[in-house]
Amino acid sequence: MAYTINVKIVDKENAVKYIPSIRRWTKESIAEIKRKILDSEYVLVSEHTKNLQSLIDLKAHILDLKAMGAKIRIIMDTSGYIEEISLEMINNFIESGKDTEREVAELMDLEARAMEEDEN
Description:
There is one protein chain. The chain is 58% helix and 18% strand. By secondary structure, the chain is an alpha+beta fold. The protein has a four-stranded antiparallel beta sheet with strand order 2-1-3-4. A hairpin with a 2-residue loop joins β3 (72-78) and β4. α1 packs across α2 and α1 runs antiparallel to α3 (52-67). The longest helix has 33 residues, at 87-119. The radius of gyration is 19 Å and the shape is elongated. The mean pLDDT is 90.
């Protein structure tokens, strides 16, 4: 299932303070980031279908913004179904992804061992 996780800054009065952190993620201009904050647009977007590292990076940027005092909303868009989610839910996605990676690695190891045994 494809989905994106998007972040909006709620407190606009400190917009300038958050720009450097957001810029490290988006590489957009300062003016564009400020406009997005002031217009209540998403400032961080992660397509979870890309890879687990993208989600881990997004979490780091969210934590960075929160450490600066940013009030944020995290929105998940699942093929048009939009809901607000918590940072805990992102943590769960990350842990689930890590579990899947471990399971795939274990299966590949089992297959490799089975092939070796067949050759012997």
